Amino acid sequence: MTATDFAPYRSDVSPGHDGFAQLLRAEWTKIRTVRGWTIGLLLAVLFTVLIGVLTSVGGQMLCSDSPTGPTLSGAACRQVPPLGPDGEPVSDSFYFVHRTISGDGSITARVTSLTGVYSANGAQQVGSDAGMVSGTQPWSKAGIILEQGAAQGSAYAAMTTTGSNGVRMQYDYTHDIAGLPGQASANSPQWLRLIRSGDTITGYDSTDGTHWTEVSTATLPGLPSSVQAGMFATSPGHVVLSSSFGSGTSTGGSTQATGTFDNVSLQGSWTPGGWTGTAVGGSDPLGGNGPNAEQFQESAGAYTVTGSGDIAPADGQQTGQPVERGLVGAFAGLIALIVVATLFITAEYRRGLIRLTLAASPRRGRMLAAKAVVVGAVAFVVGLIAAGVTLPLADHLSYSHGAYLLPAAAATKARLILGTAALFAVVAVFALAVGTLLRRSAATVTLVIVAIVLPYILATASVLPAGVAEWLTRLTPAAAFAIQQTVAAYPQVTANYTPDNGYFPLSPWAGFAVLCAYAALALGLALYRLRRRDA
After folding, report:
1. What is the pTM for the complete model shown?
2. Nearest Cα residue to 451 out of 362, 381, 382, 517
């Protein structure tokens, strides 16, 4: 950069005539006429797109439909999970003891125990209880349920006791409301009730079967007149969450839960006859006809139901690929952008040209604001182009290679693209402000990368304990990468909700707000220094 680069600026804004529009035009002239900066902006787009594409085509799924069959690849290996009423992937496997109820009515049952077994070492003991450990999982369930049908992904409402989370009313997989605390036992039974009125299902619990407390109400739109209702049991896999380096998840093995019911009371128009037992999802991981088989037994008005699986949202990272994976290259694009945004101010200090800028605009706050607006706007456009090209392209390539892409609404994809553009813009403004403070290119680039990019890489590369990674993405400017998150964490699903698995501790806009706060603070300090010191 030389003094000739600023000729348009000197002619457009003469001393004492620092209209803000003129300042913006002058700063825009600077950033678009310096060839190195233009190349840097193009590299920001290129790095984002290239890394996203390479990540998407990095692995081809291989599978076989039989031990002796041919090896398949790509789309032939794609596994699509059950989808819930709102189109979200769900886990929907349980043992269901049911009848048909037509129209309005209710079901009431008392749960007198919830027990379970699990394979702690990961082995599946088929048809036998050998090697099994007694105990329930935190989200083992036994209760009563009303379902649109017995197919996976059907709309439902349930009242259930759990292994460690008390009574819950759950419906349509994602909704979870707490009721009575504690686990059901012979000394402390839990009464459960569901009442249907049209599309509305209301759940109640009680400790004595006389005094009832409403837990919640669910509306299941389009619920047909005839639905399936009854008792169920299920138990998710035994999961041990690691908080050590790498923050991986260790799955111990299959589990089952057994619930004991009595005082079952039905109101309304129910089909006559006995109950039907169905293994929804067809899963019986412990298998066979041994003591661990999924089943139900009836004796003297008491029912014992044994089941395995879960009725809950699916763990997104274990089910498929989130759409934002294609934007993984944004960190590399940000590095190129940080260099450009830094040089936008430090190059003037290095060559002594800042005096020309300040002479043309004695109001130093306006000068800094003009630079911030221009570099932020340019960075926004760069991020918009990079994300707008990368996201659909990377998702298309991933899908063609056999990946199952987790569903994302159009509004969510728009938030990913616009949020990435906003991320680029605020990072550029932050780098500009830090450059104004330090006035040294190398120091500024290093500090901004260490503050934003390095914490993101460390938190998502499985090299830090989960707790440290979460705090890094909560307190540092790297929290803003949450703007690229689409997978949701659910308290009723035990999973490894850590940054290396795509889960940030802050919501998308809350994480972005952290970066904005840092940028605002840096701008304030930069303005203070400009006003306190001569160039």
Report:
1. 0.84
2. 517
